[in-house]
Structures are given as C-alpha cells and as structure tokens.
Specification:
Blueprint lengths: L2 H25 L7 H13 L16 H10 L14 H13 L7
The structure holds heme C.
Heme C (HEC) binds next to α2, α3 and α4.
Length: 107
C-alpha cells in the first residue's frame, strides 16, 4: 500500500472513533459533581486568592445571573466557557456556590 493510501485509511478509521467518543461525552451526565467542584477545578485556578489572574469572587455576594453571563460570554481577559465544557446545570451550581462563598480569610 502506498504511504498516501495508508494515511487515508488511517484517517478514515481514526476520525469516526474520535467523533464517536466526543458524542458520548456530550450525551453523558455532567462531568462535574457540583458547584464546589467546578470552582475547585476551573474557576479557582484564576480566582482563588488576591494576586491570581482574575479578581477574587468569594465574599462578594455576586449575582448568579452575572456570573453565568460572564462564564458563557467571557469578559475582557476572562475566557468564555461553552456548554460543552461546563453544562448549564454545573454553571448554575457554581454561580450559586460563588454567591454564597464566604470571603477567604486574609493570610
Ligand atoms: C484563565 C483564568 C480564568 C478562569 C479559569 C476563570 N476566570 Fe473568571 N476572570 C478571569 C479574569 C482575568 C477576569 C477579569 C477580567 C477583566 O476584568 O479583564 C475574570 C472575571 C470574572 C468575573 C467578574 C468579576 C468581577 O469582579 O466582576 C466573574 C464573575 C468570573 N470571572 C467568574 C468565573 C467563573 C465562575 C469561573 C469558573 C467557571 C471563572 N471565572 C474562570 C480569569 C479567569
């Protein structure tokens, strides 16, 4: 088999497998357990403490609708997160969680 044909055959085998696994992912339950986990795994990397990339979100009683809109659309330096990554339920949970999050104690 020529190299070209081989690579074509390879692609035709690999691409459907990738698509199939992506579809399984999209249909499966949320990858996050709850809002606390979304915050810990995603938001916290940039928002946990003063001096991080993003502003501190805790202890500010942020309106969940505001947080949700920023996560979906992005806001200046903050990247947007699509529903394929943070589904609607997980986003609602993390927005609620952030609103209720007490201010972190000063170190
Ligand atoms: C890659 C870093 C990064 C991640 C991850 C991230 N953010 Fe942000 N976020 C930012 C930055 C930077 C800003 C400030 C944007 C600006 O003012 O330019 C911001 C701003 C915000 C604001 C507005 C804050 C204010 O003071 O009004 C909210 C709300 C917010 N982020 C929520 C979230 C949530 C919820 C998550 C997790 C789903 C998240 N962010 C994940 C970087 C991040």
């Amino acid at each position: 088999m020529s190299v070209k044909i081989k690579s074509l055959v390879l692609k035709s085998l690999v691409v459907p497998v990738l698509l199939a696994s992506a579809a399984t992912y999209a249909n499966s339950e949320s990858r996050f357990k709850d809002g606390e986990q979304v915050y810990a795994k995603v938001c916290g990397h940039c928002h946990e403490t003063a001096g991080d990339i993003g502003p501190v979100l805790s202890g500010r009683n942020l309106n969940p609708a505001y947080t949700t809109a920023i996560v979906r659309n992005g806001f200046r330096a903050m990247p947007a997160f699509a529903a394929s990554f943070i589904d609607d339920k997980a986003l609602a949970q993390v927005s609620q969680y952030i609103q209720e999050l007490p201010a972190a104690s000063k170190e």
